[in-house]
Amino acid sequence: MKVTPLRALTAAALLALAGQASAATCETTVESNDQMKYNTAEITVDKSCKKFTVHLKHVGKMPKTAMGHNWVLAKTADMQAVNADGIKAGAAAGYLVKDDARVIAHTKMLGGGESDSVTFDTAKLKAGEDYSFFCSFPGHAGLMKGKLKF
Ligand code: CO
After folding, report:
1. For a 10 Å CB count at each end of the chain, is N or C smaller?
2. Would the pTM of this model clear 0.90, i.e. be above it?
3. Do 104 and 95 touch, CB atoms closer than 8 A?
4. Cα–Cα dist 127/140, whole Å
5. Is pLDDT of 33 > 80?
6. What is the pLDDT of residue 3?
7. Distance 50 CA to ligand 1 centre (A)
8. Where are the beta strands (DSSP E) in the chain?
9. What is the number of domains present in the chain?
10. 66 lies in some domain
11. Sheet holding 42-44: strands in order across?
């Protein structure tokens, strides 16, 4: 079969796309909304990533005081205590204890239309450990939570 220049170009483009797909993506975007939901329940961090970035977007319209959302990463075993202590720390603290050693990474608390990003060192993660992310706004973690796989 004769390969036309156009067909050869398409094959090259497909190979380039395949190459991009196989390379690790060391970042992800998580959306949160006025329905008290994230748009993802699981994030996978590739072991080839030295650092990983989470971009959190609040795509709703409600203010931070009524429908605040952040993205907090901790061991699943620590999640409940981090959340309970954060709620005690209050709104001014973003519902997190300042410099909580149990928190691996967190964004700031957002209101509708806002966004924030956090980059963390994957050296803080251990293979086989059970990690969860959640929103520390009072009453949100029941619905706003997911697993982070490493
Ligand atoms: Co929230």
Report:
1. N
2. no
3. no
4. 28
5. yes
6. 52
7. 28
8. 27-32, 42-44, 51-58, 72-75, 103-106, 115-121, 131-134, 145-149
9. 1
10. yes
11. 42-44, 145-149, 131-134, 72-75, 103-106
